Amino acid sequence: MSVNTKDIVYHRPRLLTDNNMHYCPGCSHAAIHKILADVLSDMNLADNVIGIGSVGCSVFIYNYIDIDWIEAAHGRAPAVATAVSRLNPQKLVFTYQGDGDMASIGTTEIIHAANRGENITVIFINNSVYGMTGGQMAPTTPLGMKTVTCPDGRNVEQNGYPLPITDLLTRLPGTCFVSREAVTTYKHVLHAKKALRKAFQNTLEKRGTSVVEFVATCCSGWKMSPVEANEWLNTRMKQMKMGRLK
Amino acid sequence: MNMHNTLFRDVHSAALRTVHAMLQKGQVTIDAERCKGCGLCVHTCPAQSLTLSQMVNSRGYVHSEQRFANRCIGCASCALICPDACITVSRRGHIPHHAMQHDSLWNNKLA
Amino acid sequence: MESEVRLMKGNEALAHAAIRYGVDAYFGYPITPQSEIIETLMAQRPWQSTGMTVMQVESEVSAIHMVYGAAATGKRAMTSSSGPGISLMQGGISYLCGANLPCLIVNVMRGGPGLGTIQPSQADYYQAVKGGGHGDYKLFTLAPSSVQEMADFVSVAFDWAFRNCNPAMILADGTIGQMMEKVVLPPARPRLTDDEIAHKYPWAIDGARHSRIGSNRIASLELDAAVMEQRNCERQHKYELAEQNDARAEATLTADAEVLIVAFGSAARICAKAVDLARAEGLKLGLLRPITLWPFPSAYLREAAEHARGILCVELNAGQMIDDVRIAVESRILVEHYGRLGGAVFTPTEIVSAAKNIFKL
């Protein structure tokens, strides 16, 4: 059977550049970039979007998705997005942030941007560790999980509780849509795309802040194979409320 | 003798290819150079059509390949799960329901 | 709006000048002694007239990164604060320089360190001109010494910043910010339209050029050392040209000065009076007032100090600008410092006595 373009049911998203992504094999970041590129091109937004990148493994996102990008300092993406969105109200403005970025160093910015109801979409990648710096504990690291900076597992006495930042954001009147998604199975991928599309639609309609959290894997940080990491996360997801939170 | 064997094998494999091609519903094209061999596609394929190759690409990764092409049902699960977007899926006949939901379907197919 | 003569505070004059210059956005957090800037902007409601965005935000850290975001889209963005807030902004200022973005930062200095005091001081000189944040960068630093200059320097700073794609700073102090004087406000000019920005600033992000000429990015990260060095060299080249061309100073009675006083900002106002008092006594004092602190007006200073046997560097700090003065005259002339600290301010007679004592006049 020869490949006939008319029969193609899936092809590489056109907004992804030809650069090979630097992510480790099986990294959720790459999968999320892919669906982000897909949704942007499906919604025909390439000429109407400004992305705000952040610090972490995804810092080079501007090399992979072919749209206009502004690289923000660590944690400050919601502040940058606030200004970009206020001064360019006709554009779709979104941030792409990890959990070290948004739930730790940038809590002030995200809480206040969401509380003001800025017309932005926040894509929050929560893989429970600091991936880029070598798998240290993040504010979102679950109790008991071992990382290089909590080698005996996170415990309340020393490290406090994991920060449920997404759940906090649902409580703010400025957020219009909060959803928790994953990319560990094809069903999750399809669901996540719908959520992302809904979030972008809200932003274009100026309904307030939309937040899409991706519970993600970090094979290197977790010291698991990609398949093991996905399976482990699938098990953990059974204890989480997935899908639309607000 | 050797020549005869080779000829026989070629004719035989050509025939097999034809039979397989008739059975095969989908086809997967993997960009082996882009693949990092994470194995998520192999794990997710409902038809066990994919395996990890014995070969490595120029970046040193073993890559996935469609060893059992005749099993492919063209569902695109592998392409959806692939983090590095190195899989293209084509299919003849009707399109499975969940692939229909995928917006990268070319418009003429949906129309 | 036509040009207008008003009596107002330095902080208020700066706010009015920003609206009239066509600034697109102000982001700030209140702090004494500069809160009148944001208060005046809010009271004027420029979003109804020019379309300027004015936001009181959650912190100085957020404010400077909002300036970064606005600047990345080619808009004229500014913020203002005082020492403690400017310290919080240093990371953001470094990013602005790293990404070659223009903006205006206003520091109305107060006494420090720490929470310090709300009285005027000039102790943030090093922070402004020696790079308060990480990396090799400079800020075009203007030191106003009157309410009129608070208004005038808004356009000077923005013009330089956009010409050189680098942040500019107005380094005032509590005295200049709080005192009231007559000021001629410039006539208003309209803000640039999005089309004008796209035409004038091809580096600006507009999110609308993907299909036309390809996507754009604003970033300061580069892991290839060779490329990073090249970018740094280009930046330093830009700074060298500014040092050659953009320094400004004001000289008063320097031609025959036996002792030259060097002072900036509010200190220069007091020193001008001291020079008058000294001349009345027959003492040959002159004054050189650096208007730009970076680039430092070294050539002007050497010229002014040609016949002087000594230089008295008068600052409201423990001696910071004196380093640049010594470098400028290559230590061939005796350079001494006189200053008051922590919000205390000297009087003209105090300065004359200091000059007499130090240089045995």
Compact summary:
With about 250 residues, chain A is of the alpha/beta class. Chain A is built from nine helices and ten strands.
Report on this model:
The complex is a heterotrimer of chains A (246), B (111) and C (361). With 246 residues, chain A is α/β, with parallel strands linked by helices. Chain A has one domain (20-244): Thiamin diphosphate (ThDP)-binding fold, Pyr/PP domains (Rossmann fold). Chain A has nine helices and ten strands. In chain A, strands 3-2-4-5-9-8-10 form a seven-stranded mixed sheet, sandwiched between helices. In chain A, helix 1 (28-42) crosses helix 7 (186-204), helix 2 (77-87) packs parallel to helix 4 (107-116) and helix 3 (99-105) crosses helix 4 (107-116). The N and C termini of chain A lie far apart (47 Å). Helices cover 36% and strands 18% of the residues of chain B. In chain B, the strands form two sheets. Chain B has a two-stranded antiparallel sheet. In chain B, strands 2-3 form a two-stranded antiparallel ribbon. Chain C is α/β, with parallel strands linked by helices and 361 residues long. Chain C contains 15 helices and 15 strands. Chain C has helices spanning 10-21, 35-44, 46-49, 60-72, 83-98, 125-129, 147-164, 174-178, 194-200, 210-213, 225-245, 265-280, 298-304, 321-328, 348-359, and strands spanning 4-9, 25-28, 53-56, 77-81, 104-109, 140-142, 168-173, 180-185, 217-218, 249-252, 259-262, 285-290, 292-294, 310-315, 334-339. In chain C, strands 3-2-4-5-7-6-13 form a seven-stranded mixed sheet, with helices on both faces. Chain C starts with a strand and ends with a helix. Chain A binds chain B through residues 1, 3-13, 16, 20-21, 23-31, 34, 38-39, 42, 183, 185-187, 189-190, 193, 219, 225-227, 230, and chain B through 21, 24, 26-27, 29, 31, 34, 36-40, 43-44, 59, 61, 74, 76-77, 79-92, 95, 98-99, 101-106, 108-109. Strand 3 of chain A pairs parallel with strand 9 of chain C, so a sheet runs across the interface.
